Amino acid sequence: MEQDRIIEEEMYRRAIEFIPQRYPKGWDGVAIIHAEDGQYFTSVSIETANSSVDLCIEVGAMCEAHKYNVRVTHCLCVVRDDENSPFKVLTPCGVCQERLRFWGEDVKVGVTTSDNTLKFVPLRELQPYHWTNAYPSEELEHYEKESY
């Protein structure tokens, strides 16, 4: 869909403009989430002395979407190794994939590609054997409907 492509390119543009502002040197990244109502939410990873309590880059943006009670349609995480390195997309980790499934299996996520091209896939394609397939969809739909 053309509208999806516009959203995805806007998300990437926002990410690569934000990273050098927030992190002029070194490694880091940003996550951008797009909501059904057109809002974009941005987040970065929390830096702590104890890495076992760190959170994924996407978590802050997901929390913002929950705070405003809006449905997430897209999620993108972009990083760079340092200020001289190219930007690259990171596929959401398994935990973040579970978090994003709150908004359904149609949420589109940016994925890592071998040629570093911008590509999004729905969660259902990323997780074709997801555990929720063991349950009738009506049993799981009430979680989404209660929030929106």
Automatic annotation (TrEMBL):
It comes from the Bacteria. Gene3D superfamilies: Cytidine Deaminase, domain 2. InterPro entries: Cytidine_deaminase-like. GO terms for molecular function: catalytic activity. SUPFAM superfamilies: Cytidine deaminase-like. NCBIfam families: PRK08298.1 (NF006155). This is Cytidine deaminase.
